[in-house]
Amino acid sequence: MLGGPADTYAAGVKEDIFEQYRPKDSDAIPASLRDPQNHWTGIGIIPLCFLTNTKFLEKNNMKAPETWNDLLDPHYKNNLQMADARTSGTATERIYSLVKVMGEDPAFAYQKKLNGNIQMYTKSGAGGAMPIATGQCASGIFYIVDALDIKQQGYPVVITYPKDGVSYGIEATGIVKNAKNMDAAKKFVDWAASKKFADFIVANKINYVPTRADVKTDNPLLDLSKINMKDVDVAWKGEKRKEYTNRWINEVIK
After folding, report:
1. What are the residues whose beta carbons fall under 8 Å from the beta carbon of 196, sequence distance 6 or more?
2. Which of 39, 76, 115, 147 is deepest in the core (most CB within 10 A)?
3. What separation, in Å, do the N-terminal and C-terminal C-alpha atoms of the chain show?
4. Close Cβ partners of 49 (under 8 Å, ≥ 6 residues apart)
5. Cα separation of 63 and 224, whole Å?
6. Are β-strands 209-210 and 41-53 bridged in parallel, bridged antiparallel, or unpaired?
7. Do residues 95 and 85 lie in contact, with contact meaning Cβ atoms separated by under 8 Å?
8. Low-confidence ranges of the chain (pLDDT < 50)
9. 214-235 tens-digit pLDDT
């Protein structure tokens, strides 16, 4: 399995879905970005960000959002698209961010207010990015990999990070338990965790921040030192995923 947030893998470990395997040459990946029992290995870091249509901002004489509360502005009423927590890891990451920034109960109270400005919750994490790009809506919250993809296509958008803090996803790879082609699976994961793969994603503008300490990206929007990053334990995310999704359904969108 390649890609998807590490908390999905962490939840799968509880159900005995993944083999234990540490890829070759993975010492360059910090231990905090790998499962301690080697069920998954991080290949990319992807913080959440705001993606906003610049024509909307100009029309309304507004600045791009800089805090979570900026999205409560009445100008955004029926003008935000972002992912649905029932179907998207981007959406659950949004919840984890808010809980770490605000505390659990205030985070869900905030999301209830935010729901008043939502035009649509999309099935996929990137689903709202193109509507923002084309002006069908104004703004939303995305992983940086999806926001940068839109920006690199030349659409009138701006990317900002919430100053009050944001968490990040760890894109991962791992081997499904009892894989029929285990030797090939191990070689695949070796490649996904390798410097060769990390160099490939940087060269091809696949906008993960490489987990490997020996590969750097020169894109300023991927400079993690400039972002108020909230470290969130992956195992905690896996434990809370279902609980928070159910709470979001029952308290935010019902």
Report:
1. none
2. 147
3. 34
4. 141, 142, 143, 144, 147, 159, 160, 161, 166, 221
5. 22
6. antiparallel
7. yes
8. none
9. 999 989 999 999 999 999 999 8
Neighbours of 113 (CB within 10 A): 12
* Lookup: tokens for 207: 């906008």
For residues 51 and 122, is the Cβ–Cβ distance under 8 A? no
For the chain, give the DSSP string.
-EEEEHHHHHHHHHTT-B---PPTT-TTS-GGGB-TTSS-EEEEEEEEEEEEEHHHHHHTT-PPP-SGGGGGSGGGTT-EEEE-TTT-HHHHHHHHHHHHHH-HHHHHHHHHHHHTTEEEEESSTTTTHHHHHTTSS-EEEEEHHHHHHHHHTT-SEEEE--TT-B-EEEEEE--BTT-TTHHHHHHHHHHHTSHHHHHHHHHTT--PEES-TT-----GGG-GGGS-BPP--HHHHHHHHHHHHHHHIIIII-
- Residue environment code for 171-199, b if the CB has 16+ CB neighbours within 10 A, otherwise e: bbbbbeeebeeeeebbebbbebbbeebbe
Q: Mind listing the pLDDT tens digit for each residue in 38-53? A: 999 999 999 999 999 9
Closest CA to 15 of 245, 238, 237: 238
Contacts of residue 155, Cβ cutoff 8 Å, sequence gap at least 6: 133, 134
Provide CB contacts within 8 A for 42, sequence distance 6+.
Answer: 6, 29, 33, 34, 170, 171, 172, 211
Give the whole-angstrom CA distance, residue 42 versus residue 181.
22
